[in-house]
Description:
15% of the residues lie in helices and 41% in strands. By secondary structure, the protein is of the alpha+beta class. The chain has two domains: 4-97, CATH 2.40.240.10; 101-196, CATH 2.170.120.20. It is elongated.
Amino acid sequence: MADKYTLEAQPRTITGKKVSQLRRQGLVPAVVYGARVAPVHIQIPYRPLEVTLMKAGGTHLIDLQVDGNTLVVLAREVQRDVLRADIKHVDFFAVDESTKIRVDVPLHFINESPAVEANLGILAAGTTNLTIETLPSKLLSQIEIDLSRLANVGDALYVRDLNLGEGIQIVNDPDEMVVRVSPIATAVEEETTEEATPAEVEIISKGKAEEEEGEE
């Protein structure tokens, strides 16, 4: 189970373009929403929020303490300044600990592939994260992929090969490749082709758009 963090916040009455006043005071406007929770507008001191988000990411639960109440949340969307990368607004999703949720979890490769150690091939990763569905109490901070299972060139691991334990379901297509060992020449050709292909925009965060915040 992923660790849980604690963060203190205050109720917020300032909304819209006026939230710039909060930022000048070292506060970050945020909102909490969920299927069983009416939207709650809050403000959080910048530094504690920054530290908590660095540790929690989008896969750790946060006990958000607001006006004497505690909401169990996940950070779903973090809006940042384009130039300075300062946090401008955060969307938190309030979880129901008896209801399954979907979360994108990063992959973490462990051990070494015998084929790669022998310089027979190189690793070609198919994805950097997987989407899981589980109860909040069983959330994972990362998914470990054991590369020692890739003994030969051409060996691969697919979603269907992974077992994350009881109560944790991987939502991705079972035939999606996670990682494989490619021949060195082939891997170089694939890399060259990818460099010649226009890059696509990668969506790294999903959340509820908060239009009324109107960040400047």
